[in-house]
């Protein structure tokens, strides 16, 4: 039975301390008691959108085991609230907490489309696939209001430049028209994250994401429209979704996905504390088991930073997970693969239109 004090609609249950700040913030019991007596709400649990103005929008990825060369993020922080999200730690760079702040204080880069266009027009720029959502989801709830992802897709289409998308939100189907136009020239690849077939698991693990039903429908609709889809079974968390690998792989293959990818959960930085607090409140009956099995995958610790090990883990439990993924690929994806995106067209469209000579 879960703790009745759980903050509904959020993953993190508190604001962890920002390691870069000397001061810390806490909500004391005497303040909470005062609010209770006065009939006031101590924490309204509302999301704030904050405008920021970076000078660049595309980042070069130097990590050797990530699988992308360049990424861009229109939003910092993510209202989806996935408790395991590795991007939480990056919110500390901006002076916020990796906990509730990450879900409730969303930085919005309204100049993203202009910054992207300026980059793609540079004579020195050579086409490389740029992945939207290398850090935070480009189709999180903020996108409904600001539509920065759609505007950036229009830029990619105008300049015939390859783009990848990572998301767990069915809002991507709003932009089906642009995705179909990009797919005609093999300029788009979509990665849909699906971590469970259980709506109950999804609801507590990823509280403000699209439902499992909606995500499966998204895989099917994109595939039926000729848009290549890779499904990310990530992260795999022992004793939470590790038993679902084969059923998930089978289902998404039937819906048209061309491949699957996975990663074993790792809880770096503040995420270890946040995840431990969360699981003791939401799954107290199996909290110790899950935490110990995660540690077993990472040499006895929740924190794992070693390249080549951090995504796949090591030990008996990690081997079982990785072997199951291999089996899933053999059973359901043996004759399928994601296409290489087209990098040849962009040079002809540097000025936004086809060069005749």
TrEMBL record:
<keyword id="KW-0479">Metal-binding</keyword>
<keyword id="KW-0411">Iron-sulfur</keyword>
<dbReference type="InterPro" id="IPR006638">
    <property type="entry name" value="Elp3/MiaA/NifB-like_rSAM"/>
</dbReference>
<feature type="domain" description="Radical SAM core">
    <location>
        <begin position="64"/>
        <end position="310"/>
    </location>
</feature>
<dbReference type="Pfam" id="PF04055">
    <property type="entry name" value="Radical_SAM"/>
</dbReference>
<dbReference type="GO" id="GO:0046872">
    <property type="term" value="F:metal ion binding"/>
</dbReference>
<protein>
    <submittedName>
        <fullName>DNA repair photolyase</fullName>
    </submittedName>
</protein>
<keyword id="KW-0408">Iron</keyword>
<dbReference type="GO" id="GO:0016829">
    <property type="term" value="F:lyase activity"/>
</dbReference>
<dbReference type="InterPro" id="IPR007197">
    <property type="entry name" value="rSAM"/>
</dbReference>
<dbReference type="GO" id="GO:0051536">
    <property type="term" value="F:iron-sulfur cluster binding"/>
</dbReference>
<keyword id="KW-0456">Lyase</keyword>
<dbReference type="InterPro" id="IPR040086">
    <property type="entry name" value="MJ0683-like"/>
</dbReference>
<dbReference type="InterPro" id="IPR058240">
    <property type="entry name" value="rSAM_sf"/>
</dbReference>
């Amino acid at each position: 039975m879960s703790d009745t004090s759980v903050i509904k609609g959020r993953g993190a249950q508190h604001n962890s301390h920002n390691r870069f700040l000397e001061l810390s913030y806490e909500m004391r019991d005497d303040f909470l008691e005062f609010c209770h007596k006065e009939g006031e709400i101590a924490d309204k649990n509302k999301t704030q959108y904050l405008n920021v103005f970076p000078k660049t929008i595309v980042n070069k990825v130097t990590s050797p085991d990530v699988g992308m060369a360049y990424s861009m993020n229109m939003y910092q922080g993510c209202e989806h609230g996935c408790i395991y999200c590795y991007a939480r730690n990056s919110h500390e760079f901006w002076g916020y907490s990796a906990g509730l702040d990450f879900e409730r204080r969303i930085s919005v880069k309204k100049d993203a489309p202009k910054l992207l266009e300026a980059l793609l027009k540079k004579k020195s720029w050579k086409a490389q696939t740029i992945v939207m959502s290398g850090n935070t989801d480009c189709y999180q709830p903020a996108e409904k209001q600001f539509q920065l992802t759609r505007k950036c897709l229009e830029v990619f289409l105008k300049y015939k430049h390859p783009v990848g998308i990572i998301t767990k939100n069915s809002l991507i189907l709003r932009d089906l028209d642009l995705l179909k136009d990009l797919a005609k020239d093999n300029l788009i690849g979509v990665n849909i994250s699906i971590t469970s077939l259980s709506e109950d698991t999804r609801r507590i693990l990823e509280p403000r994401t699209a439902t499992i039903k909606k995500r499966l429908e998204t895989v099917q609709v994109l595939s039926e429209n000729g848009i290549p889809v890779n499904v990310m079974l990530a992260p795999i968390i022992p004793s939470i979704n590790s038993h679902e690998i084969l059923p998930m792989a089978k289902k998404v293959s039937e819906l048209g996905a061309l491949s699957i990818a996975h990663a074993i959960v790792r809880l770096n930085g503040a995420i270890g504390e946040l995840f431990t607090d969360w699981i003791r409140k939401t799954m107290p009956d199996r909290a110790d088991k899950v935490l110990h099995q995660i540690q077993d995958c990472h040499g006895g610790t929740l924190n794992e930073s070693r390249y080549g090990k951090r995504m796949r883990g090591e030990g008996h439990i990690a081997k079982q997970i990785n072997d199951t993924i291999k089996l899933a690929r053999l059973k359901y994806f043996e004759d399928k693969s994601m296409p290489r995106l087209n990098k040849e067209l962009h040079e002809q469209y540097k000025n936004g239109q086809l060069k005749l000579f």
